[in-house]
Amino acid sequence: MEDLLAPIDAPGLYLEQLAEHHREALRAICPVDDPVWEIYPNHLAGADFDPTFDAILATPNRHSFLILADGEPVGMSGYLNVDAAHNGLELGGTYMTPSVRGTGLNGRIKLLLLDRAFACGFTRVQFCIDARNIRSQRAVEKLGAVREGVLRKQRITWTGHVRDTVIYSILADEWAARAA
């Protein structure tokens, strides 16, 4: 687990475990009026920021990274539901500040996190995406993820919407074949 959660240093990017000292930097890049909150399971802005941030840090099987691009905070992403006994985990909990969306940065981050997970011996990485979030679905499809199905009415979001969750996965052998 230590290797999985070690900082990731790549050209122009640095990912480190989200911690209390990141609170204000993350708050500063999460605008209240960001329309993306409508399709997120939680609300990381305004009055909801502190309780949501606290919950992220307190969740035992959630390992978020603060993402720095050229030294500036631009978002977070990480591993959830890490199951070492069955060699699987979920990649998610991603938020990217509006100014970096559509730049390819999120794809670069996902590649780094996928490479790390598979290098650490995980054989399955899954993504759980709100069915309304077409942009995220297309992004993981570009990475080679396979759509496995839909969990209907699976989660109640912070808005009260009961979402359908689309499940995607990438297996270690698929990832290795992609890199070859």
Could you name the CATH homologous superfamily?
Gcn5-related N-acetyltransferase (GNAT)
State Rg.
16 Å
Instruction: State the helix count.
Output: 6
Can you name the CATH architecture?
A: 3-Layer(aba) Sandwich
Class by SSE composition: alpha+beta
Q: Could you name the ranges where pLDDT drops below 50 across 5 or more consecutive residues?
A: none
The major sheet is characterized as:
8 strands, mixed
Instruction: Indicate the percent of residues in helices.
Output: 25-40%
Give the count of structural domains: 1
Give the CA-CA distance, first to last residue: 26 Å
Relative strand content:
35-45%
Instruction: Examine the coordinates and then state which fold CATH places here, giving the name of the CATH topology.
Output: Aminopeptidase
Order of helices and strands: HEEHHEEEHEHEEH
**Overall average pLDDT:** 94
Taken from the alpha-carbon principal axes, the silhouette is globular
Strand runs, count: 8
What topology, given as strand order, has the largest sheet?
A: 1-2-3-4-5-6-8-7
CATH class: Alpha Beta
Quaternary state reads single chain
